[in-house]
Every structure is written in C-alpha cells, then in structure tokens.
Automatic annotation (TrEMBL):
Keywords of the record: Hydrolase
Keyword Hydrolase: yes
Matching SUPFAM superfamilies: Metallo-hydrolase/oxidoreductase (SSF56281)
KW Hydrolase (keyword) present: yes
GO molecular function: hydrolase activity; RNA endonuclease activity
All residue ranges annotated as the Beta-Casp domain in the record: 239-364
Name under which the protein is recorded: Metallo-beta-lactamase family protein
PANTHER family found in the cross-reference section: CLEAVAGE AND POLYADENYLATION SPECIFICITY FACTOR FAMILY MEMBER, INTEGRATOR COMPLEX SUBUNIT 11
Domain of life: Bacteria
InterPro entries per record: Beta_Casp, MBL, Metallo-B-lactamas, RibonucZ/Hydroxyglut_hydro, RMMBL
Signal peptide feature range: none
Domain spans labelled Metallo-beta-lactamase: 13-234
Family matches, as Gene3D superfamilies: 3.40.50.10890, Ribonuclease Z/Hydroxyacylglutathione hydrolase-like
Length: 449
C-alpha cells in the first residue's frame, strides 16, 4: 500500500490523498481547496502531482470546501471514474461547488472552474449510506458517521489485494465536537493497520461551557444596549446550530421574543432546507423537535433574500441579531454589516468558529481595531467576543479518544493542522496511546506502507 499526501499536510486546508493498493490500483480521497493566505491559496493553481487518469475512483468525506472544493479539476485532468459520498454530502457538495464557482466568477479573479464544470463534476457523484460497505476496484470502503457536519464521514478502506502488513487504513475525515446539539455522536472504528487523522485542534481542549449560555449573554447584551449582534457564520452546520439554539432561548424566554434575527446568507438558507430533508441523521432529541415543525425556524426569524433587503437592515432601529457569511469574514454579506456596525460601541461581534491565519475574523480576534473593508478604513468600536464551545471540530481529548478506540494501529499520519499543532498532537499520541510510529507528512510526499 502507498499513500500520497496532496494537501492538508502542513496546512489545515486542501485535504487530498491518493491511496494505491498492492495490485497498483489507486483511489483519491477528498480534493479540497487550499484556503487562507495568498501564499496558501496559490497551491490551488499548481499542477496536480498525480495522473488522474490512473484513478479507479474518488471518495469524498464531507461537503466543506477544504475537502471538496477542487474536485472539478479532476475532470480537466482526464479522471473518468465516479465520486462516492453519503447522500447528504452529495446535496451539500452540489450547493458548495456551484456557490464557489459563482463567487469565483463574480470576484473576477483567477478561478479554478466555472459553473458548467462544477455541474459536470456533480454528474459523477454516487451515493452510499453510512455503514454499508461498497467496492471501488480492489478496495472495499465503508462510511462511518464522524459527527462533524451533516453527512460527513470517516472512511474505512480495505485493500483486498494486500500482500504486506498493511491491509486496512482509516481516514478520520474531520472529526466532530461530539456529543453536540444537532448531530449524532461520532462513530468509533474497531481496527486499522494505519490511520490518517486530522489535528485542527490537536493542541488544545475546548472549554466545556454550554454554547447556549454564551449566545444568551451576547443577545441579552444587545437587548440592553439596543445594539446589533453580528455573528459571522459558516453556512453548513454552524448556522443551523445557531438557529436551533436561538429557537430554544426564545421558547424559554431567556431572550426577548421581539428581538429580530436576520439570516443573511442565501447559501445557508439553501443548506438549512437540506438539513430539514435529512432529519433522520440528527440526535434523537432533535428528531422530536421536527414533530413540531422546523427546529431552525421561529416567528422573529427574517430570511434575507437579496442585496437590497440586506442593506435595508441598516435602517432598522433597536436590538437585533444578524447571522451572515462568510464564517471567517473573508467575503460575503457579513462585510457590509461589519463596515456599517463595527464602528458603533453598541455592536457586538460574536465569533463562533475556527478563524484561519490572516483572515479578517482572526485579525479582529487578535485585537486589530483599524481594519479595511472594500478599501475603506474602519475604526472598530464594537465588542469582539469568541467561543470555542460551538466548534464543529474535535479537540485534543476527543481526537485521542477516537484514535484510542482503534485497535492494532501500527502507523499514524497526522494531517489537517498547523505544523506546531501537529507536532504537539503527535507527541500526545505517543505519550498517551503508546503508538511510536507517528508521521507528519509534507505536501506531495508519498509513503510506502
Ligand atoms: Zn470540515
């Protein structure tokens, strides 16, 4: 068995691996976009270091762009196989790819693919349910629910032609911050010869505070100051989790019924409809909520459709909540709200997810109070707050617990983390689980097992 690391090896983003079995057949696992600084994003445009015509097929772990965002380039490189994923991942990935093609075109910058190529890529999608083994060439693959976002999966892959010591390899995908409000708990895996594990938060523990406490105090604060609470958010999962928490806070009277909540993200709105479609994938207690209508809807929720409606929010008086993308404030509708509201002392900016290096969200978190949005200098007077309790990624302890459940592991590859984080996590794996062979692969490295 051989594995080539074509992304997320030294960076958090750009997930991509090619696994080659002992018979010589190969499959691709994820083809994510490199996201973050220009130095990282330039990797998206470098030639792909594998001959895609040789691939028997591809597998996608989940719909986040850092895992699926480069899939269309497969077609330009002559890939002729199918791309396998769970049904929910198919729907959400279709949304993500078409949205990213549209944004790229409207940005007028260099772009990887257009909507037509994204649509042709979607034609290659095949769906398989969790826990149902299927075959791609000489490989048998099983999706396990990893509890990260709707439809996301860890992969168990067996090379049926294996002659050496390595027959079964597990790819963690992104592991969820389990147990969490909406999704089912992360599924454990019994055995593997080798494991490729993500390490986004491999160096730290999430505070065990209840995310709804932090959210309630943020909303109560703007209710008192008659200000605006801005929540930059990711369209998949985080938005739905926020809406669900707010619904419960309103129902229990912990926040005022009359405080409007604007959801200003067409992509999140579409994703929420898919979250409704796959209600069976949720925690049993949320499934009860579905009996009483949508768990993501309440009377004061205002769905913003177009740009004109988005701008009209600025004329409304009184306390309000605005949920808008993008999650790291690198684009999207959040920027015009940030430009308008951040100079006001009554505004609160509440950051609920991972912020990549050098993004506007990270800069604000690190205390930058003079920012630039669309060439305009903005002096920030708002209060900026952050919670990690809503993270959709496992922390160090959760990662170790998941890995510790897998028996007979001979080798571990740590990917999908910043380099200093990977080193800290690798050390922990050795100390706590006694696994000696822990590797931090570098970009385009190939390792023979
Ligand atoms: Zn993810």
């Amino acid at each position: 068995m051989k594995i080539k690391f074509l992304g997320a090896s030294g960076t958090v983003t750009g997930s991509c691996y090619v696994l080659t079995g002992d018979s010589g057949q190969s499959i691709l696992i994820d083809l994510g976009m490199f996201q973050g600084t220009p130095a990282i994003e330039k990797y998206n445009y470098e030639p792909f270091e594998y001959d895609c015509k040789l691939l028997s097929g591809a597998i996608l772990t989940h719909a986040h762009l850092d895992h699926c965002g480069r899939l269309p380039i497969l077609l330009t490189y002559g890939f002729s196989g199918r791309i396998y994923m769970t049904p929910a991942t198919r729907d959400l990935t279709e949304l993500s790819l078409l949205d990213s093609a549209k944004i790229a075109r409207s940005d007028n910058k260099e772009f990887l693919y257009d909507e037509e190529l994204a649509a042709r890529t979607i034609q290659k999608f095949e769906t398989v349910q969790y826990r149902t083994p299927f075959q791609i060439g000489d490989f048998t693959v099983t999706f396990r629910d990893d509890g990260h976002i709707l439809g996301s999966a860890s992969l168990e892959i067996v090379d049926r032609t294996a002659v050496g010591n390595y027959r079964k390899i597990v790819f963690s995908g992104d592991l969820g911050n389990t147990p969490e409000d909406l999704l089912q708990e992360t599924e454990f895996i019994d055995t593997a010869d080798a494991v490729v594990i993500e390490s986004t938060y491999g160096d730290r523990l999430h505070p065990k505070s209840d995310p709804s406490d932090a959210l309630r105090s943020e909303i109560n604060a703007v209710e008192t100051s008659e200000g605006t609470l801005l929540i930059p958010t990711f369209s998949l999962d985080r938005t739905q989790e926020l809406l669900h928490l707010i619904k419960h806070l309103k129902k229990s009277g912990e926040v005022k019924n009359e405080t409007p909540v604007y959801m200003d993200s067409p992509m999140a709105q579409k994703a929420t409809l898919y979250y409704m479609k796959y209600s069976k994938l949720f925690n049993p207690h949320i499934q009860d909520d579905f009996k009483f209508g949508s768990p993501f809807d309440f009377p004061e929720l205002v769905i913003i459709d177009n740009w004109k409606e988005s701008q009209a929010i600025h004329n409304s008086k009184g306390a309000k909540v605005i949920i808008a993308g993008s999650g790291m404030m690198t684009g999207g509708r959040i920027l015009s709200h940030a430009a308008h509201y951040l100079p006001m002392p009554s505004t609160r900016l509440f950051i609920v997810g991972y912020q990549g290096d050098e993004t506007l969200g990270r800069n604000l978190l690190e205390g930058d109070r003079n920012i630039i949005i669309d060439d305009n200098e903005i002096s920030v007077k708002a209060t900026v707050n952050f919670t990690e309790s809503m993270s959709s990624h496992a922390d160090q302890k959760q990662l170790l617990t998941w890995l510790g459940h897998i028996k007979d592991v001979k080798k571990v590859f740590v990917t999908h983390g910043e380099d200093n984080v990977r080193s800290i996590f690798a050390e922990k794996i050795y100390k706590e689980l006694g696994i000696e062979d822990v590797t931090l692969p570098i970009l385009n490295q190939e390792v023979v097992l």
